[in-house]
């Protein structure tokens, strides 16, 4: 596999990880909104239940279970939905953490590979053959520093 193909593959993996993370965050946000809506419905049912109880209290009527049961059942159903949404949200959070951990691991590995590549390129550059001009300048500098032609070049 060529270096270009490897880079392309890494870019695709990073894009995939980012897409997975975005999906998990969107799911978490959606669950939070649905939980808030369910909580509002519960508050509404509690208000209706309280008004019904107060009406029965003021009029000295016996509480009628037929009136109370649908409100109480509705409250229970909304709490169950909230529980399912929280489970789904926890699962999405765990998936997000996994994606983030995988991305971090991939990024660390990629950084290490880049460091190795840079070290190899640097080592290759240091050992690269010099041009003829560089060799002549180096030879003149050596001669000048050794005193052989120092008086002439100065």
- The tally of beta strands, per DSSP, is 0
Biggest β-sheet, characterized?
none
How many domains is the backbone divided into? 1
Structural class: mainly alpha
The tally of helices reads 4
CATH topology: Helix Hairpins
Q: What's the level 1 CATH class? A: Mainly Alpha
Tell me the overall shape.
rod-shaped
Beta-strand content estimate: under 5%
Q: Provide the residue-averaged pLDDT.
A: 80
Quote the distance from N terminus to C terminus.
Answer: 55 Å
Judging by the overall fold, what is the CATH architecture?
Answer: Orthogonal Bundle
Structure description:
- With 154 residues, the chain is an all-alpha fold.
- It has one domain: Helix Hairpins.
- 90% of the residues lie in helices and 0% in strands.
- It has four helices and no strands.
- It has helices spanning 3-58, 65-127, 132-146, 150-153.
- The longest helix has 63 residues, at 65-127.
- The two termini are 55 Å apart.
- The model is unreliable at 148-154 (pLDDT under 50).
Question: Summary?
Answer:
With 154 residues, the chain is an all-alpha fold. 90% of the residues lie in helices and 0% in strands. The chain has one domain (3-129): Helix Hairpins (Orthogonal Bundle).
Which labels suit this protein?
90% helix, 154 residues, single chain, Helix Hairpins, mainly alpha, disordered C terminus
